[in-house]
Amino acid sequence: MRPNAMLAQLRDTIDQIDNQILDLVEQRLTLCREIAAAKDGGNGLKLCPDRQRQVVDRLTDRANDETAPAVPHIWREIMAQAVQVQTPTRILIVGKADRDRRLNLVRQAYGSAAPVEWIDDEADALAIAAADDAIVVLPGAIGAALPAGLSSFDQLRDEQGVIVGRLVGRIAQPAAPSVGRTRSWRPHSWRSRPAAQQPCYPNMRELHRVERRLAARAPLVELNDIDALRSSLAAVARGEAVLVQGGDCVETLREYSPGKIRLTADLLLQLGAQIGGAADVPAVHVARLAGQYAKPRSSQTEIVGGMEIPVYRGDGINGEDADAAARLPDPQRLLAVHDQAINTVHHLWDGSAAGSDPVYISHEALLLNVEQALTQYDERSGRWWAGSGHMLWVGERTRQLDGAHVEYARGIANPIGLKCGPSMSEDELLRLVEVLDPANEAGRLVLIPRHGRDRIADGLPRLMRAMKREGRSAVWCIDPMHGNGRIADGRKVRLVEDIVAETLAFHDIAAAEGIWAGGVHLELTGTDVMECSGGGRRRWLGSRAPYLSGCDPRLNRQQTLELGAAIANWHAPSARRRAG
Ligand code: PEP
Ligand code: CO
Questions:
Q1: What domains sit in the chain, N to C, each tagged with a CATH number?
Q2: 276 and 241 in contact (C-beta within 8 Å)?
Q3: What pTM was computed for the model?
Q4: I want to staple 326 with a disulfide (CB 3.0 to 4.6 A). Which of 22, 282, 321, 511 is the partner?
Q5: Ligand 1 and 187: CB distance under 6 A
Q6: Are 495 and 486 within 8 A, CB to CB?
């Protein structure tokens, strides 16, 4: 066939497919109208938020990897139209603040079919919703009790996953018990959930090309080693080993060198020998390396030289230079940092002596497009596993129970870390643990408290007691870094004394609760930096200090070993008691 004739034929086929799609959409809307009439005789609001979620979840499950990302967008519009067909419904946004941003978020979550109005007075808006077909968007996550007949049926979240509003209306159907977690899992299941802290790429097609290239690459780790780490962590959970996890806050292209990787690995091994030696148990070593290229950030932008520009989010996403162009997310960076991860893995393992302790690799599972692309399936055991690292953790800002990160993490066979900050309630922890470790398997979960020196005594015992009460097994491992940030000379700094104090408080609390103090999770580097203040013989040098971190301040070698000595000292008497 001549090329032109072939093109014409293909277009003709596409036209026919479009006709069929249109016929199906119309059939669907007709059925919706009939359902609406069946619900309550044709009056009243027809919202069924749970049903909407179920439809999107089911179709995302069914879709192939290429189509899955589009499913929530396409069906959001179809279902938004369906609501209008059933009963024309307005959306009323209360309050003037942040108008455009909130409108955008509403449109992203609920499609573009409903007319939107702004209304100043909350009571007026609620009165309209109680009597009429309207959805009210209230500011904030919580508020006063609602008038009879109205329920708060959903939350509006911003790009960071922070709740910025709640949706209130008359619901046609009481919320059915959530069936969300019993449904099957696929590497793309996370796409039907809100994903906090994701970069906003200007070019999605390029991102998809990069995902396909990553998916074609070999995994960085092996399932055998993941299983080995799980059994070692099970020993930690039983109190028969300690976990020593640490490395850069964020790995950068700028600071990369084979020598630096060896120094960091050696420092972890030395710290493990110190703590394990004193506690008289083996140490398990896990580096924050070969994947730690993206950071969650508390704010999306910063002011530099009077200009507001997007924040730096790690070399895997954008550039450190303080200008708007450098800060634009670029998917090609994902390939560059993955190349560096491959090299990092080689240097980490090539340099280590045969028979020496393994140093496993870990990072925060933040960029789910990347994690999905590197996810592997093991035919023999029928398990999915992340190929990007032995252990992944879910961060403090992305651990929403119904969010995309928890959804991704629950399906993979790797050990999962979970950051537990001061805002976490016992109930939240138990629900997360149920989702992430339904079978209560020792070695699956590493809980990483990061309350801060002043808050740990208040926050941690409750969490430990709740886990114990429920008979839950986990590794408990203290992150004494992220709750102890300060600013000095315009820079992030941490005091070694705060870090030591929180670490020892953690050990005391665990002992008092009858729980094994399983180890530490640190930001450290074996190179000679001065980013944390205190410890060692050197004075803090203010702005002249060698500060190379792309994000948070790390402990240097000497500071790390001082912390190690304090922990060893804590363990020593009890180990002696056990030996005697
Ligand atoms: C981190 O470990 O680098 C981090 C961002 O921690 P958190 O999620 O606990 O703030
Ligand atoms: Co950090």
A1: 45-184 (3.40.190), 204-256+287-557 (3.20.20.70)
A2: yes
A3: 0.75
A4: 321
A5: no
A6: yes
